[in-house]
Amino acid sequence: MSVKHGLLGLLAKQPQNGYELKNSFDEIAGGFWDVNFGQIYTTIDRLIKDGLAVSVSEGDEGAERRVYQITPKGVKEFKDWLVKPMVKVRPLRDEIFVKLAFMDPLDKEAMLQLLAEQRQMYLAKMAELTRKKYLLSRQAANRDILMTDLLLDAALFHADADIKWFEHCEAKIRDFSENEDDEERD
Amino acid sequence: MKYKVEVRDVAKVYKRGKTEFRALDGISLMIKGGEFLSIMGPSGSGKSTLLHLLGALDKPTSGDVLIDDISLSSLSDDDLSQIRREKVGFIFQQFNLLPTLTACENVLLPLKIAGQNTPEARSFANEVIKAVGLAKWCDHLPEELSGGQMQRVGIARALVIKPALILADEPTGNLDSKTGEEILNLLKDCQERFNQTIVMVTHDAKAAAYGGRIVRLKDGRVDEEMEVSGVNLISNL
After folding, report:
1. In Å, how far is B142's CA from the nearest CA of chain A?
2. Does 3.40.120.10 match the CATH number of domain A2-82?
3. What is the ipTM of this complex?
């Protein structure tokens, strides 16, 4: 699971406390992948239990603080994971699929309304992501910007695919009728 | 509030014998100066017809289009072609460059046609050529350029006359997604740097998302209209 490996990757760069981990995670994946403190701490607990990270104190005496540090076993786990492609294809488990599955395709208005609203929401989200990308494009290139840009692209391509599918659904639902006497369309 | 472009209840009806086809069926739009408006819609929804009317390439059956407060319906054909030359910059999917002219000659052509080939205009043209990243390719013929470079020429050519309005018809339709993104960023730059008013027709949501407002046409009417420039949704995709 990737929160685990995301945190390992961040710890591989430098030891950090939970608060810093949350900030670093948001910096990389923020905007389309919300991770809350609860998830960070449960994941950290598991990393420690599995011997992939340890809690250590850092800094001068009197001003010490607790941070999490990756173990050699954690480094190996992260490196192995990094170069392995994912086995499973991304699951389609959007709520919208469940809603559509339970709606009556003969209640066209309700279905079309839901699809149109969903499509508009995705488009607005795409506009927001696009603005972020545009602002990035005006900064001097560096590898962090490239990675953020690629993640934004991923979100955009997926939203775009969903919008295409919504439009496709809308066209098919509009044309759909169970008796065949409604053939005439332009 | 003053609008750069107004579309007032425009209809365009094509008649063939007794059948008539309402390509546009009563469209009204107000376009602010410096706005980047995306027009979406399925094929046959009237996108291209609307773009042609905005560019004074065609006349509406009823209603009116105003550019810089000039009512197009009151103009003669000669005056309309002057509007096209001086007020509207076109960007095409197929680039439409003249193959025998170099990149920079293509860019300067609208100035010559409009009789505005002054030193000031040429120095602005140089600024534009640099802004779109064409300085190195100035002396190259279109056939020596990539698709993305040709579209940069297309954008520079549209900008040189400082048009009231730039009309872009599927400007990334012939480009791969990475090059398309560069071109769209460049269009957005034109809006930001030159406060350029842009209307772009596209069926691609990724392109449309560059607009600050997205209008969706269906069966010759405005089906949906959404302001997206100020949206900041918390929802996650």
Report:
1. 26
2. no
3. 0.86
A13: Cβ–Cβ under 8 A, 6 or more apart, which residues?
none
Q: What CATH number does the domain containing B59 carry? A: 3.40.50.300
pLDDT given for residue B63 in this prediction: 96
Q: Determine the distance in angstroms separating the CA of A95 from the nearest CA of chain B, rounded to an integer.
A: 11
Q: So what's the pLDDT on residue B169?
A: 95
pLDDT digits (tens, 9 = 90+) for B79-98: 999 999 999 999 999 999 99
Q: Residue B15: which residues within 8 A CB-CB, separation 6 or more?
A: B21
Instruction: Please indicate whether, in this complex, the C-beta atoms of B231 and A124 are within 8 angstroms of each other.
Output: yes
Count of the separate structural domains present in chain B: 1
Token pair recorded at residue B102: 């170099």
Give the domain extent around B223: 3-95+165-227
Q: Is B205's CB within 8 Å of A130's CB?
A: no
- Pairs across A and B, CB distance < 8 A: 65
Residue A130 contacts B where some CB pair is shorter than 8 Å: yes
Residue B189 belongs to a domain: yes
A11 at B interface, C-beta within 8 A: no
Q: How far apart are the C-alpha atoms of B91 and A86, rounded to whole Å?
A: 42
- Single-letter code of the amino acid located at B8: R
Instruction: Report residue B7's pLDDT band, with 50, 70 and 90 as the boundaries.
Output: very high
Question: Pick from B185, B205, B235: which is nearest to A126 by CB?
Answer: B205
Whether residue B28 lies inside any domain: the answer is yes
Mean pLDDT per segment of 10 residues, for chain A of length 186 residues?
86 92 83 82 94 89 87 94 77 77 84 91 92 91 88 91 91 80 51
CA-CA distances (angstroms) from residue B187 to A61, A127, B118? 56, 15, 25
CA distance B213 to chain A (A): 9
Residue B218 lies in a domain: yes
H helical segments located in B115-234: 119-131, 147-159, 177-194, 205-208
pTM for the model: 0.81
Nearest CA in chain A to B205: A160
CB atoms B237 and A128 under 8 Å: no
Residue B144 lies in a domain: no
